[in-house]
Amino acid sequence: MNETTELDPPTIVWDDQGACLRVIDQRWLPHRLVVERLRSVDQVVVAIRQMWVRGAPLIGATAAYGAYFAWQNSGGRDDAAVAAAALKIKAARPTAINLAWAVDHVMRQAREASSEGDRAAAALRAAHDIVAAELERSQRIGEHGLTLIADIAARKHGEPVNVLTHCNAGRLATIDLGTATAPIYLATGRGILVHVWVDETRPRNQGAGLTAWELSRRGVPHTVIVDNAGGHLMQKGLVDLVIVGTDRTTRNGDVVNKIGTYLKALAAHDNGVPFYVALPSSSIDWSMATGGDVPIETRDGSEIGRVFGLDESGKPNSVQIIPPGSDVANYAFDVTPARYVTGLITERGICDATEQSLNARFPVNDR
Amino acid sequence: MNETTELDPPTIVWDDQGACLRVIDQRWLPHRLVVERLRSVDQVVVAIRQMWVRGAPLIGATAAYGAYFAWQNSGGRDDAAVAAAALKIKAARPTAINLAWAVDHVMRQAREASSEGDRAAAALRAAHDIVAAELERSQRIGEHGLTLIADIAARKHGEPVNVLTHCNAGRLATIDLGTATAPIYLATGRGILVHVWVDETRPRNQGAGLTAWELSRRGVPHTVIVDNAGGHLMQKGLVDLVIVGTDRTTRNGDVVNKIGTYLKALAAHDNGVPFYVALPSSSIDWSMATGGDVPIETRDGSEIGRVFGLDESGKPNSVQIIPPGSDVANYAFDVTPARYVTGLITERGICDATEQSLNARFPVNDR
Predict the structure, then answer these.
(1) A40 CA to chain B: closest CA distance, Å?
(2) Which of B50, B85, B296, B303 has the highest count of CB atoms within 10 angstroms of its CB?
(3) CB contact under 8 A, B309 and A308
(4) What are B286-290's contacts with CB under 8 Å, separation 24+?
(5) Does the structure's ipTM exceed the value 0.90?
(6) Side-chain half-sphere of A155: how many Cα atoms within 13 Å?
(7) Residue A229 and residue B211: Cα distance in Å, rounded?
(8) Cβ distance A142 to A183 under 8 Å?
């Protein structure tokens, strides 16, 4: 374990001298800040599968470097090992569309290189380009989403704008700025008062552990709540806006996101609270008609039965919370039907969660 | 701490020889089975406030014995100390209506005794009567609710009936059988296959810790899920019926229950899944017009920030899951509007969640 004293290290960064990818092992947050170095396809697969890195854009970026390692390994030969490595990386997790998208993109760029000797370098450039493009998308999502927050702030006359978010679609899910958090960071950067309700997001507590941590580091006022609480807060008028991310949005605007997102969308709908999804276009699956078609990952039941944190002596530990004889089921994502989505905040602006509106922003020849 | 080897001890029982009330200290479940003896008003208040006992009917029964201790203490004199004790017990927790109802009932019965010397005995009898009446109500709720399960079972031709429940409205919330669980126990007792989806129920995990434990003890198949998962299960057709309890239902049929209940009601509504609330009439607040009038308890944030269980060495421990600098808000209950409630399962049968329907079952002169 490599703990770092950096205050706010990047989620992912290519280390040219070390010829390795540095990522935060997010499993230790918020308790330890651990940076690991990845140097092979297998290490990338482990980091994605074991959720050292998570969040659709960050998974995609990490996978892109995995594809580079495959080309580097083969010395640029387009052999069976390269193809197998690509498949292996794409299979590391099933739901986030960015994973397959990024690997396919790097593979394509490498194969288009003029010679075998150039392929690994082309793959690395393609991975760098994905990182740069995701960062740019976060920035633009932030600018478009900022207008929503600014409009509410103008109506609230100095009262903070209360934004509820689920899971972590924050900087830790991306290269920086996040998707759902990008409008929040940009708003606070411009002096708009924002307060964030952070769903703890069982079973892995990405809200309590990651979103709360990164908002703390960047000085954004926030309050952690259990996932059960959001409906009550909306009934009481304590939520002005919901912004979440997505692991995959299908072409009709159905939003696949962390389990429990759907329940918040229902509550927002029932209480007239705007419900927005912030997403880079890399999270749109144009090949899928509806969210019902997307494979929903089921994960090990131990994620529910054992909760990880710092124990009473301040040491990392986990506690068992269910009786030994009880079964557990662990569905990682759910589908929020497009009809409950007020709008999609993309890098090309805010659009309706409909096929027509998405097509207008992202024409077939310009995706 | 008094661990017991009893397999399935009562949640509450009067010990005549010891002149004390024996209750399970439910804070240790599912890890330890601890039975404690209560002998004073103050001990009763602590047991209710610290949630050794919880669940509206069980809180009411425990409080009733608290009121008895007050009369015993005063030697039957209706002095300021008795009145103060009654107020103190009623203030132990704010949301469950059974608490005030039970204390008021015992006070009334004691005051109607023919002499000071008879008052303590009258109070004790009244407390016993409350216990007997609650048990009878659970039995009848079970019989009425059983018809719902049996009807679904008949349509499923041998497939188990999937019931989702939230929090613990089980035998541990009552004298025995529970409210929401009573139909389940009676159905399984008659050989109907039932499988229960158990919401873990953050922040105190009464589902994971209590409902799962008591279903295990009585051999009812069940699966623990995070609170986020219920909507997804309903979308996938994996829930036939939702049954929950209530801490207080107002005369229009609004249901105040554990935080998160409202979100499950919304999901049930969205997916055409019947949503029932099982309640003894002692949980109906005839004095309140709507759920919006009910005080919603907020509890200490440490309930969210620290999760209790057995650590990796098998010892009771707790782990901190949020960063030290983050705020926490802990709302204990929410209000499910009557329009999302398919029906109320009472001891007098199943009725609509409307003032008219409730009044028809419980006329003013027969409550």
Answers:
(1) 32
(2) B85
(3) no
(4) B286/B251, B286/B367, B287/B251, B288/B248, B288/B250, B288/B251, B289/B250, B289/B251, B289/B252, B290/B250, B290/B252, B290/B254
(5) yes
(6) 8
(7) 20
(8) yes
